[in-house]
Specification:
single chain
């Protein structure tokens, strides 16, 4: 992981496994900060009110800076830490995981709990998938309508992130460019359009 990008969970989602009659429902979500993570944890408690435990962990920051975990009544170190370790092994940040457990009447022991909680989150990560988010500079490229179609095609073919195209008096194409490549992009654009394109910077965003 670098400050130019990070990996997070692709979308909010859940995945369930069963271990010796106990149900483990793992819910994951991308989050921007601790407030969003805490809100998601509270929402999962409301969604599964009859679960005996709602163990969780989250990782916030780029690169990974803030980490929290909770066993929520399970024996110390058997739930929150295994959940957190799965997130870290997957190199995820900006991610929260909550595992709600419905007790099935059979005690699993410390080792069984570690495997079940960690396994539930690992299975959820695999089922939901992950995405790589990059820090891009958002640039609006303004050109005459006659050049817009070919320019948009060339931008896409060159690997730049074309986010939106609008047509008014001129055509405006919003493009995401890696921050370190801004000058190279402008030189490439000037050569491609013989200086006919104009650019406006909107700022930076994680995309």
């Amino acid at each position: 992981m670098t400050v130019e990008g990070y990996r997070t969970i692709a979308a909010e989602g859940t995945h369930e496994i069963e271990e010796r009659r106990s149900r483990f429902i793992a819910a994951l979500a991308p989050v921007e900060d601790e407030e969003q993570a805490r809100a998601f944890i509270a929402r999962r408690r409301r969604a599964e009110p009859n679960a005996r435990h709602h163990c969780h962990a989250f990782v916030i920051g780029v690169p990974q800076r803030e980490q929290r975990s909770s066993d929520d009544g399970e024996p110390a170190g058997t739930a929150g830490v295994p959940i957190l370790e799965v997130l870290l092994r997957a190199e995820l940040t900006a991610t929260v995981a909550v595992v709600s457990r419905y007790f099935g009447g059979i005690k699993l022991g410390a080792g069984g709990l570690v495997r079940a909680y960690g396994g539930a989150v690992a299975a959820a990560v695999e089922a939901i998938g992950t995405v790589w988010r990059r820090r891009l500079e958002l640039i609006v490229v303004t050109v005459d309508h006659a050049l817009a179609g070919k320019l948009e095609h060339d931008l896409r073919q060159s690997g730049y992130a074309v986010r939106e195209t609008s047509y008014g008096r001129d055509a405006e194409i919003e493009v995401g460019v890696p921050v370190a490549e801004r000058l190279r992009f402008e030189a490439w654009l000037a050569e491609l359009t013989a200086g006919a394109a104009r650019t406006t910077t909107l700022g930076e965003a994680w995309v």
